[in-house]
Amino acid sequence: MSRTRVTAVALAALLALALLALVIVVNVRAAPEATAPEAAEETSEQPQVEVDGVATVRLTVPTDDFATGPAAPCSDLVTSATDPQSVELAVTASEGEQQELDAEVRVSATANPFNGLKRPYTVELADPASVLGLPASRDWMLLDEFADRSLLRTASAMEIARRLGIDWVPRLVPANLEINGTPCGLYSFGEVPTAQEGRAELADDDVLLLADARDLEGPRFSTERGLRVHVADPEEADPQEVAAGFQAVEDLLYDPAFPDNGYRDRIDVDSFVDWYLLNEVTKNLGSPLYDDVYFVLRGDGTLAMGPPWDFSASQGNRRNGSWRLDHPKGWWLQRSWYAISDDPAWRRAFSPTQVWNEPQGHYFNVLMSDPDFAGRVAQRWTAVSEDLSTIGDFVDDRAAVIADDAVDNFSPPEVDGPGLPVAASALDNDPEVYVFANSDPAVDVREGWRNEVDLLRRWLERRVAWLDGEFAERAPSDR
Fold first, then answer.
1. Least enclosed by CB within 10 Å: which of 79, 131, 337, 471?
2. Where is the signal peptide (predicted)?
3. In 158-193, which positions are buried (b, 16+ CB within 10 angstroms) versus exposed (e)?
4. What gap in Å lies between CA 363 and CA 369, rounded to an integer?
């Protein structure tokens, strides 16, 4: 062998070793916070951001328009969902690295208009930037977590989604928010569902859609069965063309020949199975196609479920009367609401779905009536249930990370806290609707928050155990 050939071989070997080392480093850095059991290959492959501390997000809002300084910066400075407020944004990672960025901030369009104590915000940067190690974007979110006194339900739901292997799961980091130097509480800062590189990566002809009953900005359409769908991204997509493609799939679900009509060729079955399991595990209030339900309509006409979003009313913190969302047993997405009344007006008012007037129920009622689809759900549960059985450990681990900052969230202004309620407040004090771990509003805030964490962990552990038993009976015998 010539010297040139030997040199080339040696160089190739060195290059291979270097690439192997790089792969190892990347895999180590992208490892999830909690070690998954043996079914780890089922988890999402997207890189994760290690959460080992709490970041700080500071908004500096000009006050030139105020005759005097606002008495309550957290509630008085950024108040509009339609008129963005220019701010100076400073983000400090838990290890101390700081970024300063120009941005516009507004109240989230889906915020509770009656809640001025702690609002969610959308953040639009002047230029795309990577923040806290996440892929560069202009669009970011500050989730308030007000309705979730554990401050952990978003994190636990997204972790379940990741363990289910959902293609793209929004990455969010716990962060203390300050507005003009005033502490406003512990938030989740991070990604919002958008179609772009590093997030929901869609092909050129794909469209990201949002099923939501609320009157949101932007192009939208309604299906023949009453589902209001917003064109989320790209906005320049032709709503009529998109509506026709979506309607074609909906019609297949309600076709008298279902399920033997080829509908499986027009949906991404795997994405529907995983999305169903995520929202069945969490008993997510809006998931029966009421609000915050993302879809992707692909260029070939196939419909897939989109990114998971909004778990503020889930995992046992709602009762909603006879719906018993607080109980870890019982089906949620398999329940049909058509038979609750013969009066259509009553059904519409008291059904947690936009598709309230179909005898077959909403989409997932229909899908679960197909033995093939139901069997695939049971098989998928068998594959992931061991991974999900340790979700309580994740809750405890994340609680340890945010503990001091969570206590600050509920501490009074006298000790530099925002004084947010750890028990029921005037905004959520109906015991037929809301569930809290503490009945005494004067409970010690550390004890009260820890009670909320324990409530969440126990609920999830019992929920997974109940589903284990149910799906064991439904799974095909040759699994």
1. 79
2. 1-30
3. bbbbbbbbbbbbbbbbbbbbbbbebbbbbbbbbbbb
4. 10
The two three-digit tokens of residue 30, written as one number: 């992208």
Residue of 90, 82, 81 whose CA lies nearest to 61: 90
Q: DSSP alpha helices (H): ranges in 350-415?
A: 363-368, 371-388, 391-410
* Nearest Cα to Cα of residue 53 among 441, 351, 397: 397
Q: Assess whether the previous peptide bond of 441 is cis (omega < 30° from 0).
A: no
* Element of type H or E holding 344: helix 344-349
pLDDT in tens, 285-321: 999 999 999 999 999 999 999 999 999 999 999 998 8
Q: Which is it for strands 55-60 and 172-179: parallel, antiparallel or unpaired?
A: parallel
For the record, the structure tokens of 72 come out as: 């309550």
Low-confidence ranges of the chain (pLDDT < 50): 1-41, 478-479
- What tokens appear for 112 in the block? 């509770």
Instruction: Look at the alpha carbons of 158, 273, 229, 363 in this order and tell me if their dihedral is positive or negative.
Output: negative
Tokens, residue 334? 């398999």
Q: For 258, list phi and psi in degrees, rounded to 5.
A: -60, 140
**Structural tokens at position 349:** 């008012």
* Closest C-alpha to 159, from 145, 169, 174: 169
The CA R_g of the chain, rounded to the nearest whole Å, is 24
Tens of pLDDT, residues 55-72:
999 999 998 766 566 668
Q: ∠ at Cα 152 (147, 153), nearest 5°? A: 65
Q: How many angstroms separate the CA atoms of 68 and 86, rounded?
A: 19
- Give the amino acid at 465: A
Give this prediction's pTM. Answer: 0.89
Bridge partners of residue 212, in order along the sequence: none
